[in-house]
Amino acid sequence: MKPLKYVLALFTLIICLHCKQNPATPTGTVTENAMVVSARQEASEIGSKIMKEGGNAFDAMIGTQLALAVAYPRAGNISGGGFMVYRQADGTIGSLDFREKAPKSAQKDMYLDSLDNVIPNMSTLGAASIGVPGSVAGIIEVHKKFGKLPLKQIFELVIALAENGVEVTAKQAEILKNYREVFIKVNSDSTKFAQVYKEGDKITYPNLAKTLRAIAEHGRDGFYKGEVAKKLANFIQANGGFITEDDLASYEAIWRTPVVFQYKDLNIISMGPPSSGGVTMNQIFEMIEPYNIASFGHNSDKAIQLFTEASRRAYADRNYFLGDPDFVDIPTSFLLNNNYLANRMADFSWKKATKSEAIAHGKLEIIESMETTHYSIVDQEGNAVSVTTTLNGNFGSKLYCDELGFFLNNEMDDFSAKAGVPNMFGLVGAEANSIEPEKRMLSSMTPTIVEKDGQLWMVVGTPGGSTIITAVAQTILNGYEFNMSMQDAVNAPRFHHQWLPDVVIFEPNGFSSSLKEKLKSKGYIINEERTPIIGKVDAIRVLSDGRLEGGADPRGDDSAIGF
Ligand code: DON
User: Fold this and answer.
1) Which residues is 239 bridged to in the sheet?
2) Nearest C-alpha to atom 8 of ligand 1 is from which residue?
3) Catalytic one among 372, 446, 467, 470?
4) Which three-class secondary structure state does DSSP give residue 380?
5) Beta strand 370-378 pairing with 35-38
């Protein structure tokens, strides 16, 4: 090697070693003690206020979840479901499943016509698509196990928000406009959301405030029994749905063991079934670990290829094997076995894309735009909470119960209505995720907490349907392998592959045409005409001095607030 080249190589090596040693300088909001990052400023503010008033991250979780139901009704909810992964300050970890479930009258073929074809829209639009809501049971469980502040004190902050109203942002005005027709179609033109809302308008929710009062007063029975339950079941049935008072009364949230795995010196804690998030992300990380992805460069062709091939294989397994663990036997140790995963990648070649048909069969399209929401919380004691919650589609089933003040979910579409036929995220399901009475539909939600050197390092999650798992994995890699600050890791352009359809989806910006051409020449099929944004990641990184850096996704109105 010529001397100049030698000096340059040495210089690059020193810089690289230096990068690994010096964590990225924060570029997002930094606080000393506590933080909430969520989809709306009002919700982050309420969560942060609760912690300032002496509440812990779990109290803040309750406030943030409820405040999102008011300020972010397209996904925030009391009538949907979700998952919480937590890590207490002493390192104890756990997770809560408050996923919706099928009503007792549900049947495997409930969305099929007499010729066994899937009835269009039945599992996505209107009352027939609603799963038994889990969110209220979730927050009440959290309060029972970990709450510090009285439930009423937390609820009062949110009730005030609902009564005083929330300002419509530009993005919200746009989305309400886009959905107005369908709100009218599903609900009639007398519904609250038949109105036209402009940026800067205030929407108040007096009826939601009343429902929240009933819950503050009677706990879970304020929603699942009595007056509210009766009104809710009657309303759903009057609109052609299946949920009864008995379905509501027998809903329970379930504490579950999280999925925990190592990636190099990270310890990753994520959600297990009925979410596919933890298992699928574990498979992806295990398949890419033998490679030095950092050396390929962020979003380089090689990094994209490796991640895509791992995702292709992991999603093929997801769609076949995963479902509600209370109904199906999931071969988890087989799916997470190192030899099995090494074998899965044995036919991976840098020269040529693997074809998805070579792994399994199916055909589909991604149809509807989607909305879920994620929030991350760390409190002043060091407790961390990671929650993803959803109505499934934007505004769920679009059915709005004016009397009680909320939208209802369309989570039943997350079941596989018919084996081999894609749902609205283009996911092709199998028997493991078929409909059964009281079964939970498979989810992709991936609320995650990451430890580094045994300490809390990152709290992360996102909406995005089937793209959730890859967006969370890429955010962790951005922070760990590519040494980005929390905010930069969230901002960075994302891509996605989910086995079927056999397409790599790129976000609109950040991927050059020469990069895409290079991938195409190796046989990758690329989304040319439709480039959606992928996820809205809300995350927190613990800096080496203990301060917190927020990563609030600029793709939405998301906001990091703390003290
Ligand atoms: O549980 C799931 O995987 C889906 N219901 C999540 C929906 C979603 O993320 C839509 N968001 N953008």
Assistant:
1) none
2) 465
3) 372
4) coil
5) antiparallel
